[in-house]
Specification:
By secondary structure, this protein is α+β, with helices and mostly antiparallel strands. The chain has 14 helices and twelve strands. A three-stranded antiparallel beta sheet has the order 2-1-12. Strands 4-3-8 form a three-stranded antiparallel beta sheet, with helices on both faces. Strands 5-6-7 form a three-stranded antiparallel beta sheet. The relative contact order is 0.12.
Length: 392
Amino acid sequence: MREEKRPTLVERALRRMGYIKWRPASVIQRVETAPATPSLAPLPAPDGGQGLAYAGVYMGSPWVYVAVNRIAEAAALVPFHVFRREGEHEIAVTDHPFERLLRRPNPLLSRFELIEHTVGNLEIHGNAYWFLAGEPGGVPREIWPLRPDRVRVVPDAKRGVRGYVYSVDGRDVPLEAAEVVHFRRWHPASDYYGLSALEAARLAVESDRAMADWNRRYFGEGRAVPAGILTIHERVSDADFERIKREWRAAYGGPERKTAFVRGANVEWQHIGLSQQDMDFLNARRFNREEIFQIFGLPVGMFSENATEANALVGERVFVERTLWPKLVRLAEKITAEVLPFYGAELVGRFEDVRPRDRSQQFEEMRLARGVLTVDEMRARYFGLGPLEGAG
């Protein structure tokens, strides 16, 4: 009997929400007719099907793993808030329904995991997708991140994007454009897909992995360069030669430090240190690491072994302002444009501003404003709070 494939988590969500059940007669039929018109066929990703390869690089390159994790985990730590526009001001909405959904996006993921998943996919693939599960046209009830290597965009001549096709277990599941939030980085050669940072770092990553693999094979297969050579220039018997080796290694050797023995006429020790070629090898790996980190936006001060405390603090500041904050703005503006309209008009989503700043100037501005602005105006401008009852 042929064993039936177990459905994936996303497919279970699709079935539970009724998507696979009600779609075959409507949406699937429409999307399956799209390939008859070449301009409406699902577009292959511009990475040439490298989605799984990119994931493999992340799992196999320590520098890529560190860079992606540093960014994704830092982003997942930042709180997200919903505001309502009232004229020129934005008033914080306490415990908004979307904030509650974000805290528990689906039965298996937490808010931290969803943001980590999303930002990580953006760094590795250049694309990240949310599937908004719920009644058609209604507010989302669950958010499921989709694997970017399984998603294809279906273009539309008028609307830009007609929908998406999610391939799972050998079948294509069509999704409406409104049900998918597509986060993507800018791609100069594609109107529909984002550019992975790994594409820009390809040469440095491949070089570093090749060097690491060579290093592993060289030392792992027992061909390591010895710490030195002991040359015995006098003729000795086999028994004496073996005895000298045992005694020398017992006194000076060890599993991590080997000595080569050569029979001759006298006894001479020759030390073998790192050659210029070996030093160049180490410097090349260090250069690859720094290049990969720079492409991902990790300043040298954050990871350099020679960095002072001041350099490390400056590196952290630059990382937050130049790397982390723009990524959070990208996510927040996409959520504002494509998710919050389900909950009503004039809503704005924003991650908490974690950029370091000099607060003394703001405090001085607030002190001067006390004689000009009302309490409610002060609360709205500097704290994002609503009017205080009984204050003027």
